[in-house]
Write a structure and sequence with these properties.
7-stranded mixed β-sheet; about 30% strand; 6-stranded mixed β-sheet; alpha/beta; about 20% helix; 6 helices; globular
Length: about 290
């Protein structure tokens, strides 16, 4: 994978961030890894696949955006779903939440300069509401203490990709992220959610997770320009998959009892480059290869 164009990050609000990207030439390309629903602390998290994708981002110098549920954090004292048999051995202690933070800081340290933004998910907010501690904030702080860049965002937020050529700003790509909502029906697989986002969000890319399905599809709109010509603008809807395999062999458990099947794994690469003086976007799967 070729090197990613150099970038820097700015924070304008707790859920509004900007990456300023310098494209040295027309052949230069910027990419960002979009992931969601890592459920990193769950025994069913495919850490090998997760590490492969994060290592690819480090190797090419690309930033990483996580849009919620980095933690599963279902086994705390005040969680009605708590089941200590579903905890990794290193977390089976009385200081469960502290260990989730400390072990995550160690595990994610190799990615501290690439893991730029941690959006909040329903598992993250659930822990904050019940236990009055914000694990994502503590993880991000621990990575920054080690010289990293990691910041926390909101359940929803904005990331502007501001492109510069020769030190002069050109166009930008507006990314709106939202962890997600609802159950993601077996027929629609959560696709209808993007119709709702598009009712109130004007963005070039909309990224969500939550339902553990995975797809990307374009929406094309016709626009009348100031020169009275018609231009087609493409917006990308991105649903990131999960890194937690709850199906396994299909033997049993909550996932199986609800009639749910295997879920697609991994996230997506969002790629940006100049094509005939216009910014072009491409979304590629971060899969098994």
């Amino acid at each position: 994978m070729p090197p990613c164009a150099p970038w820097t990050m700015q924070e304008f609000d707790s859920n509004i961030h900007q990456l300023t990207i310098d494209l040295p030439s027309r052949a230069s390309e910027f990419r960002i890894l979009l992931v969601s629903d890592l459920h990193w602390d769950n025994p069913h998290c495919d850490r090998k696949l997760l590490a492969k994708h994060l290592d690819q981002a480090v190797a090419c110098g690309a930033p990483i955006l996580s849009v919620g549920d980095l933690y599963c954090v279902m086994q705390g004292k005040y969680d009605k779903r708590s089941d200590k048999s579903s905890v990794r051995p290193e977390h089976q202690h009385g200081d469960y939440l502290d260990r989730l933070v400390n072990t995550a800081v160690e595990w994610f340290t190799p990615y501290k300069n690439n893991l730029i933004l941690l959006g909040e998910g329903n598992h993250d907010s659930g822990c904050s509401n019940r236990c009055e501690t914000r694990l994502l904030d503590r993880l991000a702080y621990g990575l920054r203490e080690r010289g990293g860049l990691t910041r926390t965002g909101g359940y929803a937020g904005w990331l502007r990709l501001q492109v510069r050529r020769g030190g002069v700003s050109t166009n930008s790509v507006r990314v709106f992220y939202h962890h997600g909502f609802g159950g993601g029906g077996a027929v629609t697989m959560g696709k209808i959610d993007f119709n709702r986002y598009n009712q109130y969000v004007d963005a070039d890319v909309i990224v969500a997770g939550h339902v553990h399905y995975k797809e990307v599809f374009p929406i094309v709109q016709a626009q009348l320009t100031n020169a009275n010509s018609v231009k087609h603008k493409t917006k990308y809807m991105v649903r990131c998959g999960t890194y937690k395999d709850e199906f396994g062999t299909g033997k049993g458990g909550f996932h199986i009892e609800k009639g749910r099947g295997p879920r697609p794994m991994g996230g997506y690469w969002l790629r940006v480059r100049m094509v005939e003086d216009e910014l072009a976007i491409q979304v590629d799967e971060a899969g098994a290869f």
